Amino acid sequence: MSSDFSRRKFLQTSAIAAGGLFASNxxxxxxxxxxxxxxxxxxGANDRLRFGIVGVGMEGSALLSNAIAxxxxxxxxxxxxxxxxxxxxxxxxxxxxxQTTREYRELLDRKDIDCIxxxxxxxxxxxxxxxxxxxxxxxxxxxxxxxxVPEGFAMIEAAEKNHRIVEIGSQRVSSALVAKAKExxxxxxxxxxxxxxxxxxxxxxxxxxxxxxxxxxSPSNLAWDTWLKDTxxxxxxxxxxxxxxxxxxxxxxxxxxxxxxxxSGMQATLGWNEAPRSALSLGGIFRWKxxxxxxxxxxxxFDYHGIPVYVRLGLSTETPETAxxxxxxxxxxxxxxxxxxxxxxxxxxxxxxxxxxxPEKMRDEYVREWHAKNDPRIGKEPLTAETTYTGDDWxxxxxxxxxxxxxxxxxxxxxxxxxxxxxxAIACHMANESYFSKRQVFWDANTRTVKT
Length: 452
Hints:
The chain is of the alpha/beta class.
């Protein structure tokens, strides 16, 4: 018997057993979405939640459409620096008399507005959230929570000092799929997690933020200098307005746009609510050489209390969005529309190929003894568990918005509060700092800073 044959036979036998060809237990289960139930009777005018929205762009228009579809919720005002979006807000709400303004503080001054939805570029998040909290408004803020590390802590302070509900908009935190993955993990499905892989790839101009600016955009219908805030003053530039994620002054790149969703889902699944110890990032601008500063390919290796978390984000090759949780008892693969679980025993399913080092007589004796001790009785073969759960898109807006509105009503805390959102954002800032500094970076919790 050749050594090569013995080893190959062992690996093939193990693979067959792990694949469930000896005996399988495969199930597919559809999950009900974590969504609101309609009230048993019409909601009176005095019981309706009234919100104002700040930012009615790509993300804001989706949030607005989904929010007004929820029972007992009404939009009564919209703010945006581009006048074309005033028209859009009226179109979405079906209310030609909806108050629209370039000055979001007008919404904060209104006593009839209970809360704010903020869907503005990253570099505006802190200002709108802090102002909303100080005005006594609860606020739903799109991800990533902050544009810089200090901004995140200022937002937490504003929420706590003013006793405000703040929810950050990584919608999958409220999805039925993530809830199921959490239940499975806490139930010991894979044992203690020892590795996480988070991956996502796009391959299109739109996926790379090459958005077409509105045709009529001009300094006459956009408050350009206001939009620039405290960033360097530059001449009017429609591409900067529409594609702001490409520049460090305004956005946080693939980390803040894509990775933050994966990290937030990971935190919710595993019950982690912390910043990573360290981050090491590699990447570059390989395809979209359009003047952008942020990488179009970014890989990161995080250390979360000793557990490696690997992230790959790319804008040049389409790959499924997947969060893979690995442990000694199996794997949980979480995707946009499903959770797949496959169990692993962690035991040999055939005699060890180390027997290739035994003399023939010893090898034969070892093989006989192994089978005598380990072969299952006929009809008692172990089952390989394979279970798939399907559900609504884990980035469906409605469940997460509903969690926010219910918190506004009840004053009960939300899962993705300012502390949770800040931890996910810190990881993104660490990844970007590592990328630009070309070295590993570390989180210093005492000084609340990223250090090299």
